[in-house]
Specification:
The complex is a heterodimer of chains A (115) and B (114). Chain A is built from no helices and 11 strands. Chain A is an all-beta fold and 115 residues long. In chain A, strands 2, 4, 5, 6, 9, 10 and 11 form a 7-stranded mixed β-sheet that branches. Chain A has a 4-stranded antiparallel β-sheet with strand order 1-3-8-7, with no helix packed on it. Chain A is globular, with a radius of gyration of 13 Å. The N and C termini of chain A lie far apart (37 Å). With 114 residues, chain B is an all-beta fold. The chains are: A mainly beta (115), B mainly beta (114). Chains A and B meet through strand 4, strand 5, strand 9 and strand 10 of A and strand 4, strand 5, strand 9 and strand 10 of B.
């Protein structure tokens, strides 16, 4: 069964450094998402992306964050200058068409640790 | 009031028991309702999704939605130790761009004991 893949599984970065998290969504999917989960807290929506542009972003997704689909397969989340509070699991998700009842499929996440 | 409320547990049951997991929500604009299972250090795995009030069954799992009460449930019959995981309820709006942002509950940690 096709799956969403994320790399790396664990990223350790010094505070203030830039980090890029990578995702390969399921190949025929059109909508792409990033969520994060701080340890012990709920999964939170960050951003949705469709047709090469952001369709919605949360208040967490400030100017330090950006997303990109640089080619036909990858979807990336960049954090420009990381803060300690950016430490979390970051999940990429994708779904197929526009109908609301198409479920989102999640990758296994990247654990980001900011030192 | 939180948009989605879910008892975090932990919930411990003996093997073979019927498990009932619940969420309440406050936003009547939610249109689709999902249950995800999350094992430790893994991503959420979709178990069930539904968009209408009533029951939906898939094997040992039954999802129930009551939109009038803003209440959803997941029932697991004949629970197995492999069902031990965190269960997340999630709900979605339809975004103007056509996608659907998910709002999650905090998750209920379930342990099924031999």
């Amino acid at each position: 069964e096709p799956e969403v893949t994320q790399t790396p599984s664990h990223q350790v970065t010094q505070m203030g450094q830039e980090v890029i998290l990578r995702c390969v969504p399921i190949s025929n999917h059109l909508y792409f998402y990033w969520y994060r989960q701080i340890l012990g807290q709920k999964v939170e929506f960050l951003v949705s992306f469709y047709n090469n542009e952001i369709s919605e972003k949360s208040e967490i997704f400030d100017d330090q964050f950006s997303v990109e689909r640089p080619d036909g397969s990858n979807f990336t989340l960049k954090i420009r200058s990381t803060k300690l509070e950016d430490s979390a699991m970051y999940f990429c998700a994708s779904k197929t068409g526009a109908r609301g009842n198409q479920p989102q499929h999640f990758g296994d996440g990247t654990r980001l640790s900011i030192l | 009031q939180k948009e989605v409320e879910q008892d975090p547990g932990p919930l411990s049951v003996p093997e073979g028991a019927i498990v009932s997991l619940n969420c309440t929500y406050s936003n009547s604009a939610f249109q689709y309702f999902m249950w995800y299972r999350q094992y430790s250090r893994k991503g959420p795995e979709l178990l069930m999704y539904t968009y209408s009030s009533g029951n939906k069954e898939d094997g040992r799992f039954t999802a129930q939605v009551d939109k009038s009460s803003k209440y959803i449930s997941l029932f697991i019959r004949d629970s197995q130790p492999s069902d031990s995981a965190t269960y997340l309820c999630a709900m979605s709006l339809i975004l103007t761009g056509g996608g659907n942002k998910l709002t999650f509950g905090t998750g209920t940690q379930l342990k099924v004991e031999l």
